[in-house]
């Protein structure tokens, strides 16, 4: 038992132990705020403001501590230890998010997959050229028309077209379907 007490007494007298027992308040506050900012960056997606600020605060806390003592070699060791601990924290949290219970929470479970029949953005509407449809809404000049039982967003080439009128598709440009009224005379309404 005496050997154990002697060991702890020797540890308490060492310069490493004095780092944590004789610290001023400012370096501790900077270091803790830095850790908190880095943790916030893990949970709030953004531009890295909290992460970068957290790293800066951690380094500032360590630097302020060692500027007070003037021990630069210990400063380098502590910065290295801080970065290793920061890396370890990010690794553990990211693993917990991916595989653990934390990853199953609503904030981290984003299902970006969409059923293929629901993705209208990938369709080619070239097959509509020359087909006739009926407007479902007033085209001012944009609206909806039904072609072959399917409602599609369309654009009137010129003017407005009333709801329920027959239209013909004259061209497509990607997702843009351009229509004109089927009548021989061109109606324009405002």
From TrEMBL:
One of its GO terms (cellular component) is plasma membrane. It is found in: Membrane. The chain crosses the membrane at residues 27-44, 49-68, 74-94. It comes from the Bacteria. Keywords: Membrane, Transmembrane, Transmembrane helix. This is NfeD-like C-terminal domain-containing protein. It is a multi-pass membrane protein. The keyword Transmembrane helix applies. Pfam families: NfeD, NfeD_membrane. Its main location: membrane. Residues 128-181 form the NfeD-like C-terminal domain. The keyword Transmembrane helix applies. It comes from Candidatus Fimimonas merdipullorum. PANTHER family: INNER MEMBRANE PROTEIN YBBJ. Residues 21-93 form the NfeD integral membrane domain.
């Amino acid at each position: 038992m005496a050997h154990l007490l002697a060991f702890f007494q020797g540890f308490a007298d060492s310069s490493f132990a004095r780092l944590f027992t004789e610290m001023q308040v400012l370096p501790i506050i900077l270091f803790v705020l830095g850790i908190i900012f880095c943790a916030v960056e893990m949970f709030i997606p953004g531009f890295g403001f909290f992460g970068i600020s957290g790293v800066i605060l951690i380094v500032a806390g360590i630097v302020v501590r060692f500027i007070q003592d003037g021990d630069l070699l210990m400063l380098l060791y502590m910065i290295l230890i801080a970065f290793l601990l920061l890396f370890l924290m990010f690794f553990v949290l990211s693993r917990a998010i991916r595989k653990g219970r934390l990853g199953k929470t609503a904030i981290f479970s984003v299902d970006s997959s969409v059923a293929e029949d629901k993705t209208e953005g990938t369709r080619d509407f070239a097959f509509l050229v020359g087909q006739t449809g009926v407007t479902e809404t007033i085209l001012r000049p944009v609206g909806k028309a039904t072609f072959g039982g399917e409602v599609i967003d369309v654009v009137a080439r010129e003017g407005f077209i009333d709801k329920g009128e027959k239209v013909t598709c004259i061209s497509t440009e990607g997702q843009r379907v351009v229509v004109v009224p089927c009548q021989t005379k061109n109606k324009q309404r405002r």
